[in-house]
Amino acid sequence: MKHKLNHKLLQIRNLKKYYPVTAGFFSSHIGDIKAVDGVTFDISEGEIIGLVGESGCGKSTLGKTIPRLEEPTGGKILYRSKDITKLNKKGLRALRREIQLIFQDPDASLDPRMTVGDSIGEPLVIHNIGDEKERSHRVAELMKQVGLEAGQAGMYPHEFSGGQKQRIGIARALAMNPKLIIADEPVSALDVSIQAQILNLMMDIQEKFGLAYLFIAHDLSVIRHMAHRVAIMYLGKIVELADKKELFENPLHPYTEALLSAVPSFKHKDKDRILLRGDVPSPLNPPSGCHFHPRCRRVMPICSQVEPKLSEISVGHFVSCHLY
Amino acid sequence: MSNVILKVSELKTYFFTRRGVVKAVDGVEFELRHGECLCLVGESGCGKTVTALSILRLFDSPPGKIVDGQISFDSLNLTECSSKQLRQIRGKDIAIVFQEAQSALNPVLTIGDQITEQIKLHLPLDSNRTRDLAITLLSDMGIPSPEKVMSYYPHQLSGGMKQRVLIAMSLSCDPQILIADEPTTAVDVTIKAQILDIFRELKAKRQMSTIFITHDLAVVAEIGDRAVVMYGGKDVETAPVSEIISNPKHPYTIGLIDCLPDIAESGERLVSIPGTTPNPLDMPTGCTFHPRCPEVMKICSQKEPPETAISKEHKVSCHLYT
Amino acid sequence: MVETSGDIVKGVGRCMPNRTRLINYYWQRTRRNKLAVFGLAFIIFLIALAAIGPLFTLDPTEANFEETNMPPVRFTIEQSVYNIETDDFTTTKISGTWKHPLGTDSKGRDMLAMIVSGARVSLLVGLIATGIAIILGTIIGVVSAYLGGWVDNALMRFTDVMMTFPFFLLLVLIVFIFGPSLAFIVLAIGLTGWTGIARLIRSESLSLRTREFVVAAKALGASDNRVVFRHLIPNVISLIIIMATLSIPGVILAEAALSFIGLGDPTVPSWGIILESGQHTLETAWWVAVEPGIMLFLTVLAFNFLGDGLRDAFDPKSNV
Known about the structure:
- The complex is a heterotrimer.
- Chain B is of the alpha/beta class.
- Chain B has eleven helices and twelve strands.
- Chain B has helices at about 50-55, 85-90, 100-105, 110-120, 125-140, 145-150, 160-170, 190-205, 215-225, 240-245, 250-260; strands at about 5-15, 20-35, 35-40, 65-75, 75, 95, 175-180, 210-215, 225-230, 235-240, 305-310, 315.
- Chain B has an eight-stranded mixed β-sheet with strand order 6-7-8-3-9-10-12-11, sandwiched between helices.
- In chain B, a hairpin with a 2-residue loop joins strand 1 and strand 2 (about 20-35).
- In chain B, helix 4 crosses helix 5 (about 125-140), helix 4 runs parallel beside helix 7 (about 160-170) and helix 5 (about 125-140) packs across helix 7 (about 160-170).
- The two termini of chain B are about 25 Å apart.
- In chain B, about 50% of the residues are buried.
- By secondary structure, chain C is mainly alpha-helical.
- In chain C, helix 10 (about 270-280) runs antiparallel to helix 11 (about 285-315).
- Chains A and B meet through helix 6, helix 7 and helix 9 of A and helix 7, helix 8, helix 9 and helix 11 of B.
């Protein structure tokens, strides 16, 4: 899996997405759910970034905010050096050709009343590409690329299995020749043997088309297999970001350590497990200072007072922790 | 061979639906020994959940029916005993914990009400002792401030907490067997670790005999003593977990292990099992795995493979070994 | 999910034109419900009756004072008639004839003809009034869900107010003011019956908006227009069909009820009007009330069965 480190495709600077919480008769604003709270990282052309975190950490929200399916509350998103947070409708439509999404639930992400051929071809229709003949030709081509038969284009989603539906979703995402695909838990809902098939497919098309992925998942073993670089998210912030090998062999942030040790491993039994106490706090009322401090086994007095900043500790290895 | 407390022989549970007969469990055989954690492993549709439900006959009775087989527990045959006998066993001698903690708890009753209800069904304690027992159970599960939690409603607890409450409830009458149906599937990694830890403690401190249902081989490696690999309603391989890891025999087991991303060198293609899980209304003839098997032979589509013993503890159902 | 997992796809020969496959799929699911099939059969029969029936029957408005109060064929009743000559009641036996297979009413009009023309009236009332209610309810529901904000608030409060009106009294009021013309009755029923539909359509639209395939469409670059017309509405149509089917009986009964209390249109022989005229002669000429009653009963049942069957067929989670 080679990737060009030169061109920066996506640059996210201090991105924020808050959901206001209102209460009372007059719907007064009493606080915010800080789903994404100041996220900064880059994605280069052809690079696969794995975004890991547990439920409530904001990774799905981040995945939706980048292509502006949710409007950012603050911060900047630069795509090919252009600020897309300020794009108008026309520019946004053009952006949609370059950044595509793959969703978690293969059942829910396809319109049950459209044939799969129509679903796959929909982006072509939306962006006025080709005439009807050219479109069905392209749909057939895409279906073959994801391992389906072109003759199945006239069938409906409920006639396919989970794995096949996910392939259809991938074909649809590829229709516009995007440069970046944001995949939100694309294999979590699939059986292990099907998971392997889909992951292989995603790797194949990544190589073939030089795509960049933002691969969002909670399954660390999948991330370990797929990603070039990995980012760990906790309560809306990135706590660690590093090359895959570096992160798995030399995790710096206590949360990363706990996550890695928590993953049950088939090969390595009986390893020392770091058990995290308590549960993930509510994003409406995160702990002061470093959000992780109440559960951290290496907490220091400063942790509850000052928020740590994401800093580069070694080349390409960023951590947000007072220990460093 | 240490004492066997539950033995399932040739269990067949079929569902008679309008579209045909679904052979959810089609000849499953295994035994559970005292103090061990037996894992039922397989992907969706393999019949592992229905097997567990069959032990306590918890499935809907039309359309489901146990058409054959025996489940021996405590000198009873659970497939044939009366509903009354079964109800006395449920919760008291054999307890079951389900996957979706959200839907297993009644949203309009407090945690305290639900636990004490469970206890009152089986143990003749007065209300004070019942309450004390409930609080003890909650704190044993590592739930902080159990007295406060007694008056909480389920929606006030997180997913991990709810799962722990469910496990506490299941242990309230000190059952001999605990059946856990995918307790770690719908939860985050760190909570998963906590729950696995609870099960490990249960085994160590109480010698609890557990049937642990999962599709995650890594979880099996973590806490299982022995494993039964299921496919298409049948058990295809049974062995101690260490054997399964180091010396798997059935092509499906091998395929399942190979397609784990954990194992593969990152960056290379994962080995995958081609095809999809079979349609339970239209099972393949002979060995149910044969359409997807890399080692398929002519006999595989014609005859069902008999069970062969590789060693005293290791059994496979595959024509490669007959 | 027995249907989808493992349904091995069989290859090229499956290309049929789009909508047919989908309709066929839902039809197969509906077919399995025997009651729904009965309902559909009855409705088709009713439509045929209404469409071509009047060609074969006598004139329902033709009064025939020679043949009043005749029972249906094969029934015989005793009638006491005041004989002016003898100043006494003479009891005669009257039997039904095939000329009037369902008997006649007090004015000698043929019951069969009236029932058949009543079918036409009831169906038209049902379809048109429901049509008005559906169109109104759908527009309000979809617009409310889609625009949200103060528009949604305003529309829903308006709906709430309309809902609190005692529906029937409103009908009575309208008929009282504008006179008992069938056109007004239909309009009145339509204009008051949309509220429940609007609510349901709105909540379905709201939940659809957050479904992943809608997000997916937006992610592809679809305009709002496209999302509404290509994704939301087709997925709401099944709900509309079900609601329409289940609303029709209520509408038919509403018209019958209005006629029964004397506010119906006397010039048009609907089942309600016939029922009303028959209520006074239940002892002597029971068939005048019973026949339209049975028809109303069967019609309402038929639509309800069909509606329930359709609802189950369209619900992906129900195990048909």
